[in-house]
Each structure stands twice: as structure tokens, then as C-alpha cells.
Amino acid sequence: MTRRFLPVGFLFLSYAASAGGFQNGPQNARLLGLGGAATAYSRDPSGIFYNPGILGHLDSLTHLSFGGMGTARTTSFLGTDSRRQTKQDFAVMPGGYFYATHPINDRVKVGLSINTPFGYDTKWPSFWEGSSVVRSASMQTLFVQPTAAFKVNDNFSLGAGVIYAHGSLKRERSLGQYDDLEATARYEGSGSGLGYNLGMYGRTGEDLSFGISFRGPVTLKVDNGTAEYQNVPALDADRYPANSGFNTEVKLPSSLAVGLADQMTDKLLVTFDFALTGWSSYDSLNFEAQTGPRVRNGRRYEDAMAFRVGGEYEVSKDLLLRAGVSYDESPVRDEYISPELPDGNRLGGALGVSLRLSKVMLDLGYSLDVAGNRTARVNRTQYQSPNIAGTYRTMVHTLAAGVSYSFGSKK
């Protein structure tokens, strides 16, 4: 590529372009097995992240749930001009979760949620045809949410939580305007922010329950970003100094979810979720470089919907089986598809199992999401947003394993 662009801003351009694709999915092995239909699922403390109102209707025991998860994306790229196929290097994005709930009295309960709801790890071959767009990129987040809930009556409860979020990003690409393929730019930054989570949970009878939740946007304030440039020709040394700094703000989206759970038989529970994620907040991103001009970038994202259905079958009190399906809509337009993390409408299936061993329950969940093919086209007017034309095919594998434990006495 021969176009010049502002590399400091491009770090976060690519981050934003990954849009719906960088949400790690369901933050618990049980919920993963349900396909993520969690807004009205009140059988596990992990529900406090997806609907704080659920906390009010948990029983009077103290509940603990913790575990680890990994997400692996397999993406191939077929260049429009070169007709060359390139596959991403295999990489697993690690994650984990911890949930704890405790009753203060029959009406008031408190809890703590710690998880990793956003992230990705992308690695392309060092000198592939899109190396000037991205070679490797990763993002990691950690959300900590203390939560409290109040049970209004036997059929209705309200809950709220405060979110502290921390995120870090790393990125590497070649400076494609030079003949030297070793001319490289590396970026790294981290930031933190606050948010909130509100929810209510209710029951219309012994068998049917519902939930509504709203998780507000979280703005990560990045004020310690660093950019490093190597093997840059002396003529452009001032444009690309060996070390530079920048600051910016990155807003993670809000989420509105509505869910139903129906105890269809003594052994079968079916759950359903609808979620609307507020990606349209990414209409533009602004960056302040310590040595360089201010950069403004328009993105034109759209809000995206998701539908999830799950089922849980109780084989016995010591064995539970789960299955789920999901459909996630992509908010990213074709002209903004990037190799940072190709994104498409995704159809997913999931399986899960819980097995009781003595006083603990072992949980296992697996999901496979298949994204629709996306074709990226280079917009010659977007000189600050370099891209490469071609078609992406992506599948996402997620595996989670955890342990659940409850203690105390029911009142």
C-alpha cells in the first residue's frame, strides 16, 4: 500500500472496527451451554452480571462459581486481487470468571462478579499481503462488579451493580509505504473506566419467569498509550519517532436484554433472550497525540440484535444437560471490515453438562459460532483507514469449565 496515514489513531480505529466480534461469550460454563440465554436464568450466581435482579431471588445460601474459558477464532482470507489465501495463526484468547453471592437477610442480598467480557487475540503471518494493516493485535478486559439486590415480594426483585473496568491493547503492523518490510509500528495502551448494571427479575407463576436488564456503556480512558517505530527511513524520522505517546477514550457499548424462562416440565427448563447492543455510539473516535495533530475518524456503526434460546434437562439431581442456539447480528458495514477481527452475522450452537461430585458441581460448556462470509472493499477516500480487499471466513470456538459450590442453611 502506498497511502500514508496516522498510525497512532489507527490502533483504535482497528479496535473499533472489530465491533460485535470482540465480545467474549457467555461468562460462565453453564450459561455457555445454554447459548447465552441468561437474563431470566436464576439457577447460578453468574446471573448477576447479566441481570442483577436475579440476585434478589437466589435462595438464602452463599453461592460461589468460578472457572476458566478460552476462545479460538479460525479465520481465512482470500485476496480480491491476489487470489491468495491466508490463514490466521492459531491463537486462544484466555478468560475467566468468579461469582459470589451472600444473603444479608431474606430480602437483601449482595454479590460480586469478576469476569472478562471483551477481548480478542489476532495473529497473521508476519509478511502476509495485509501486514501493513495488521500483523497481530490483542485486547484484554477485566470487569469487577459489586452488586446488591432487594426482593420486593415473592414474585419480584430489583438489583443494581457498579462496574469497574480495565482494558489493555497491543498491536503490530508493518509500515507498508516503505520498501523495507522490517519497518514496523507497535502500539500499546491501557485504560480504565466505570459503569453500571441494572436489572429486574419476576415470576408470573411457578413455571414462568422473566428478566429485564440494562448495562450502561463503559468508557475506558487511555492516557498512557505508547507507539514505537522501527527501521523507519531517516527522512521520516520526525513523522515516526522511535517513541511517541497518545491518549484517547474508548467506549464499550451498552446492552439492553429481555429474557424469559419456562419450566415446561418437572425436568425441562427452556430460556429465551433478546438483546440489543448499542454499537451506534461509535459514530466517531478522537485521538490526541503528544507529537502530532488531533485525529478524528467516522465509523458509522449500527446497533445490533441477538437472539438466544437454551434448554436445561435434569437427568437426575446430580446430572444436568444443556443445549442452546444463538444468532448475533453484526453492526459493522462492509466498508469497515478489517483483518484486525473480521466480523459477520453469526449462527451458533452450544452444549453443556453439570455433574455433582460430593458438595461441588462441575460445569462444562462448549459453543461453535459460524460467521457469514464478509467481503472487504478498499475505500480510496478513507486514507486514514487503510484496508485490504478480500473475503473473510470465520468460525469461533469457545470452551469453558468451572466449579459451583453452595453452603449455609436455607431459611
From TrEMBL:
Pfam families named among the record's database cross-references: Toluene_X
Source superkingdom: Bacteria
Keywords: Cell outer membrane, Membrane, Signal, Transmembrane, Transmembrane beta strand
Localization (cell): Cell outer membrane
The keyword DNA-binding is annotated on this UniProt entry: no
Membrane topology: Multi-pass membrane protein
MF GO annotations: long-chain fatty acid transporting porin activity
SUPFAM superfamilies referenced in this protein's UniProt entry, alphabetically: Porins
Family: Belongs to the OmpP1/FadL family.
Name of the protein: Aromatic hydrocarbon degradation protein
Origin species: Hymenobacter perfusus
